[in-house]
């Protein structure tokens, strides 16, 4: 199955254009493609399990799986003291994060313009009137992006007044993307794994944009109300990402005291299980126009959060867990909830390690 997402590997014409770019990141992309596959000398070399044919309709964009593969390889190499392999894996992680930024930049430039902006402005009063605004997953997205509540409220107010981010906000976010690319270049020059750890934690969350696009495409829109709700959610997520980007320097350059990685993954898993309890409504008559879209989007956010939280974990069953998330996403689009019931039983027995 092909992916309708901006987070895709480069096509030939784009790669040819990028060859002329003298930036360190562009050189890293080319270098990574030419690197030989390291020989499997021991169990520290990560091997991606073969996926079954029916699992190729994944809910996660391909770049996220590539990022996980390269990060697992980097972590294993660092743990074993293999500096050569760690350096080559670093190139892969930088390339994947740079590609994620490509997708974010496209969304920032394309979303919330013209008629789409007007549709969001028109939809917001209706959503407020039917008390549906509180069900949109924008607060959860704000928490996922580590945004303070007042910034999330400001984004919601901006959606109501303007239908999207302002040109000034868009420009500031794009400037931060350029700054982040500079930090990736610094990683390539210095091979600073600590800086890359912080960039990974910050930038990997922006894959949510691609996942929201996939959720929108998969769920379809059978009524005007559903289409409007999709537009509001997608525009809101872009606006929240833009707000998060404006805090990029603080997030990347400052060492923050945070909860443990395992706790973060467990909390994301628990939040997903809680959200899955609402999934049965997908096979019932919607309580309001767009309710099914909202449920799918909320689940997409939770699945993205648990994927990102699990990336830095040393966990033998991580790929199995990601495959299960793919199967859950596929089950949500079936004609009956039977498949979902099966996957729910499985995911309650497979959770991130304590």
Measured on Cα atoms, how large is the radius of gyration?
20 Å
> What is the mean predicted local confidence, pLDDT?
80
C-alpha termini separation: 35 Å
Strand content: under 5%
Question: Structural class, judged by helices and strands?
Answer: mainly alpha
Order of helices and strands: HHHHHHHHHHHHHHHH
Shape: globular
- Extract low-pLDDT stretches: 1-58
Number of helices, counting only DSSP H or I runs of 4 residues or more: 16
Short description:
With 354 residues, the chain is an all-alpha fold. It has 16 helices and no strands. The N terminus is likely disordered.
Key structural traits:
mainly alpha, 354 residues, 16 helices, globular
Can you walk me through this structure?
- Residues 1-59 are annotated as: Disordered.
- Residues 7-22 have a biased composition (Basic and acidic residues).
- The two termini are 35 Å apart.
- The chain has 16 helices and no strands.
- The chain has 354 residues and is mainly alpha-helical.
- Mean pLDDT is 80; it is low at 1-58.
- It has a domain at 21-30 and 58-256 and 289-311.
